[in-house]
Structure formats: C-alpha cells, structure tokens
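Box S1 | Example of a co-folding query
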Amino acid sequence: RIAYVNGQYVPYAQAGVHVEDRGFQFADGVYEVVAVKDGGFVDLEGHLVRLERSLDELRIDRPMSRAALSVVLAETVRRNRVRNGSVYLQITRGAARREFPFPDGVAPTFVAIARHLDWAKGAANAARGVAAITHPDIRWGRCDIKTVGLLPAALAKQAAKESGAYEAWLVDDQGFVTEGSSSNAWIVTKDNVLVTRKPTHEILSGITRSAVLELAKREGLKVEFRPFTVAEAQAAKEAFVSSATSFVIPVVTLDGKPIGNGGPGVVVARLRSLYEAHAATHSTD
Ligand code: PMP
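Box S1 (continued) | Returned holo structure for 4'-deoxy-4'-aminopyridoxal-5'-phosphate
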C-alpha cells in the first residue's frame, strides 16, 4: 500500500506526519471521503468544492489547485490498484511549535489514503435494512465544516456498535434528530414526503444528500426541509441514511422500534437504485 504525504508517494508503513502537526494537537484540519466505484470517483467535484469551503472557513491555505488535487487523488487510487473503495484526504494547517493561534509561514499538511471497499456489503445492508440508535449530539457549533474533530462522532458510533446498530442518529437538546454520526438522516412520511434538515451550521451538508435531493426532485418526490423528532422518525413510513460510502441505506429500526413495517420500503429502494445509477454514470469524473 502507498500513501500520499506532502508531495510524495510513500509506503504505508512509513507514511507519517510531524508530532507537532496541528491536526494531531488541535484537530486543526479538514477531510473528505470520496467513493471509488468501478475505477471512477463518485461526486468528486462536489467533494472538492466542499473541501475548499471547509478550508476557507478555517482560513487554512489550499495546498494546490482543485485540478492538481484531483490528480493526487487519482494517482493515490491508481498506485493502490483500488477500483472499488474510497479515498480519504486530509489537510491540516501544518506543523509548528505548539501555540493556539495560527502559525506564520507554515505550509499545510496534505495526506491521502486509498482503500478497498466491497460494495456488495453495502448492497446487502440496503436489501436488509439497518438498525440505528439515538445518541445525544454533543458536537460543536460548526458541524457544517468537515473537520477532523471526530471524537463525538466516534463515541456515538461506538455506542451504535455496542448496540449492534449500523448508525447513531444524533439528537439535539430539543429532541430533534440532527444527522447520523457519519451520514445524513432522512425520513419518508405516510404521504411519501421526504423530510431532512436544512443544511445549517448544525449538520454537514452531505454531497450524497445533495445528489439524492436532485434525484428525488427529478422523480417528482416532495421534500420538506425541517427537523424531525425521534418519535416522528419511529412513526414514519420509511427512514434512511445517506453518505459517500453508504450511498442510501434504509433504517428499519430506531432504538429497537420498527419503522414502518420494520423492513426496507419502496421509496428508499427507489432512491438507492437511482443513486447507484448516478454513481455509475459519474464514475468517469
Ligand atoms: N454527516 C456527517 C457528520 C458525516 O460525517 C458525513 C460523512 N462524511 C455525512 C453527513 C455525509 O456526507 P457525504 O454524503 O458527503 O459523505
């Protein structure tokens, strides 16, 4: 395996960054995960646009142009012979003597890692449906920025794992679901209306979420952009999560309570198949 680290492709075992990297000390960095399907990136442009927004919001310098970045990602994928999987990229403010304010004249750290992923497992999860649990949303006030500060997400995902669930749906102080620990959360009402939150500072505006919204619109499905409670989700007809590596996965139980008939529903199945087709056509991006 080969990783990309600051301009070089190095063997995985030797790939490292400095001990005083600000990503390590302050979570002062951002990341993206892009799916690789049949040798092509899925929604690459959207991920790169969001990456630049995250960097701009934190005033971290862009290490290179969007085009150059795409080349690095493609080369990382190619050198690892990944045809189906994902590429992870992380950019931090760089390495400097540990002081809270931004250092002067320090170049950002840029790393990229590719890995294999078995899409058949995702398809099996989609066919069966998955369980989700609820977990308090203890994250900070700028969840719209895709930072590497993922400890609250890791705690939530660990709780899900210990309950045998696939995902944890994070719940705010007022009892509304914000999003999944690493996915966006949706429900489908009895009238086949999709409900998902507005992309405010409380959630990450998912690239998969945007693509699904576009597909749903073309399909003539109605969408309401509003928060929903745990009780409303449990009483919904269908529910699902969306993310770059999950695509669209039906959630069939929430905290052990069945949603709808407790199995995958037709609306989510349709959205998944539309997204799969979209991912296939965009695999040459
Ligand atoms: N919300 C959170 C908190 C996430 O970590 C992710 C996945 N990175 C998503 C939503 C889904 O975003 P995307 O569709 O761009 O993968």
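The chain has two domains: 2-117, 122-284. Helices lie at 22-26, 44-58, 66-79, 119-128, 151-162, 207-218, 230-234, 266-281.
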